[in-house]
Amino acid sequence: MGMSANVLPKQRPALRLVSTKGLSRDEWLKVRKQGIGSSDAAASVGMNPYQSQLELWMVKTGRDAGLPKPDSDDPESPVYWGHILEPIVAEQYSRQTGRKVRRVNAVLQHPDPDKHWMLANLDYSVVADDEVQVLECKTAGEFGARLWKDGVPDYIQCQVQHQLAVTGKQAADVCVLLCGQSLKIFRIERNEELIEALITLERQFWDCVETDTPPLVDGTASAERALRHLYPEDQGETLDFSESKELSDAFSELLAIRSEMETLKSTESHLKQRIQSHMGEASKAKFPGGSVSWKRSKDSVGLNVKQLLKDQPELLEQYPLTKPGSRRFLIHA
């Protein structure tokens, strides 16, 4: 995505939809369901690597009760550390740039009535600066840091351009803390062409929300997760898709891909076994293109539940655990 600056059109200031001071996270999430927030922007146009359009649609239409949600109080969650480190990142940004920043304690709304669904939460505003007006703070661990090796990831650029669209501002700085020790600052200029494209695609998504029409699936783990929660039960009905060329072609292609995957899996096993047979009792082998390791894991001690229940069957009645079933997608050809 090119981030070249364009001439900034005149736009009224963003509306303050609701103050976030004293607002609980549940209340804040409820407000966000009224539109597309800046952190929703990439998912709404199919560019978020972590959330599909279908999963976001379920959230916006109130079908997300069964979906897993990040716990902001769990120290194992990236959301927790992002919240803890945000003010530290902002403070270091001010120290390095000399710019003063201020929290924006409000959910903002686009001032145009036909874009009422465009919402934004800004981390900070940059005070009295002609060059940059918005600060977006990010943190990334070892895995997430890979997405930043070529600069700001596309899905974050969508988020920031959405913020600039809602606020009418000219530029934003993205300050990211990588792996807890490397602070990088990136400037993103307002791009009118990109904003117009975003608005068009976001409007299409919001139409799906307002008409209660599920968007198309995209093959991601997020879409698969959403489908499992959207259709958790089957009713025993059999549908005949023989007259649908689109679905029949999809089924034929699925069969061909499954067959190819089986062949590739067999080839992979053969190649792995060839290397293992030459390694013998060695722990590691090196090649011009990399290396492999073949090490024994430590022994572990577990509980023989089957034997325990055989010896003490009454325990099953005292400590029952119901595991919910799930739908299995099986192919018959």
Helices, strands, pairings?
Layout: E1 15-19, H1 25-32, H2 41-44, H3 53-60, H4 78-97, E2 101-103, E3 106-109, E4 119-120, E5 124-126, E6 134-140, H5 142-145, H6 154-167, E7 171-178, E8 182-189, H7 192-210, H8 221-230, H9 245-279, E9 284-287, E10 290-293, H10 305-311, H11 314-318
Parallel strand pairs: 6-7
Antiparallel strand pairs: 1-3, 2-5, 3-4, 5-6, 7-8, 9-10
Tally of alpha and pi helices: 11
Shape: globular
Largest beta-sheet characterization: 5 strands, mixed
Q: Tell me the helix content.
A: 40-55%
| H-E string | EHHHHEEEEEHHEEHHHEEHH
CATH architectural designation of the domain at 15-221: Alpha-Beta Complex
Alpha carbon gyration radius: 25 Å
Mean pLDDT: 93
**Strand runs, count:** 10
In whole angstroms, the N-to-C terminal distance is 43 Å
The CATH class of the domain at 15-221: Alpha Beta
Q: Give the structural class.
A: alpha+beta
Contiguous low-pLDDT stretches (5 residues minimum) are: 1-5
**Residue share in β-strands:** 5-15%
* CATH T-level fold name of the domain at 15-221: Lambda Exonuclease, Chain A
Strand order of the largest sheet: 2-5-6-7-8
